Each structure stands twice: as structure tokens, then as C-alpha cells.
Amino acid sequence: MIVCHCQNISDHDINAAIDWMRASDDMAIITPGKVYRALGKAADCGGCMSLFLSTMRSNNNLEVPMHLRNLRSAATQENQHERRQESYRVPQRRAAQRIDGS
Prior knowledge:
Helices cover 47% and strands 5% of the residues. It contains five helices and two strands; from the N terminus they run ββααααα. By secondary structure, it is mostly helical.
């Protein structure tokens, strides 16, 4: 089935690109842009994007590797303790004094 008429990309092309990327790097996060680049093409009008994404999601090799899941939430939890308690901005009065030279 043709998914993208502008670039003549079929569902077979998308699945083959995903399978190839997963086989070459099992830790890769596969995105639509990477699939287009793997096929040597680029998105044109974007009208196919919903069907393109649906085709990608149906591929079993698209899943994010287990050890890469939840990295964002883990990083957020670690950074909560590193946040500054006070504002990082220089008070306006001190900034004005520096500019005036006083």
C-alpha cells in the first residue's frame, strides 16, 4: 500500500527501514525523520503523516528499548534536588549600579 504519494513510499518501505535501523542499532530511537532519511527522502506536504505514523506504530521493532524507557522521569527526579532555592537573576538595582559605575 502506498503511504506517501508525494515521495512514493509504501508500507513495505517503512517497515523495511525500521527493521534495518533496529538491526543495525538496537538502542536507536526511531523517528519518522529517521525513516525518511533511511529511505533517502524527505517529507513534502505532510498529508500522509497520520498514515505514516500508523504504519510505523504497527511495526514490532519500533518499540523503545526497555533500558531507555522512563529516562525523562528519572532525570526529572534527579534534578529536583539540584534546583536553586533563590533566583539566579541579579537584582535590578545591583545591575543598574554596575552599569552606572557606582
